[in-house]
From TrEMBL:
Signal peptide: none annotated. PANTHER family: L1 TRANSPOSABLE ELEMENT-RELATED. Residues 3-97 form the L1 transposable element RRM domain. This is L1 transposable element RRM domain-containing protein. It comes from Pleurodeles waltl. It comes from the Eukaryota.
Length: 159
């Protein structure tokens, strides 16, 4: 997972045999990676759409998983994508995320819900990768990895 990126909401319509070529062009053009398409293609080990968890009536495209040879290229692409802020293919917006374990994603989701609560209370809160949380209250900084500890801080601030 360390070298993988997940591309979300990339439209359907690309044949499995051409998916790697499509992703190489997408990375080169939309993310503005300063490498040739040949070099990017060499650095990609595997590209595939993630299977759906269960049959769905929604016509939402499945995530695309791209596995790179090196961690540094994966991080470089992710950093460029974050700088660009909005990415789109054929007018459809898409997102790029690190491929994290479901445990880490769930932890991020739980911690992320608290950001809005803390902002409403006047605190500065930030989710740090992969699943830690930084809160600044009255010029004092706190670090958390467990959302229950964050809930305790929220209770203290509310009083």
């Amino acid at each position: 997972r360390r070298n993988n990126l997940r591309f979300l909401r990339v439209p359907k319509g690309w044949k499995k045999s051409d998916l790697k070529g499509f992703m190489v062009r997408l990375i080169k053009q939309e993310v503005n990676v300063e490498k040739s398409e040949v070099d990017i293609a060499k650095d990609i080990q595997r590209v595939h759409r993630v299977p759906a968890k269960m049959p769905s009536n929604r016509d939402r495209p499945r995530k695309i998983l791209v596995s790179f040879q090196t961690y540094s290229l994966k991080e470089h692409i992710l950093a460029l994508a974050l700088k660009k802020k909005s990415l789109s293919v054929n007018g459809s917006p898409f997102e790029i995320w690190s491929d994290l374990a479901s445990v880490t994603l769930n932890k991020q989701w739980e911690l992320g819900k608290r950001i809005d609560m803390l902002k409403k209370l006047g605190a500065t809160a930030q989710l740090k990768c992969p699943a830690s949380f930084r809160v600044i209250v009255n010029n004092k900084m706190y670090y958390f990895t467990d959302w229950k500890e964050v809930d305790e801080l929220i209770r203290i601030i509310e009083k």
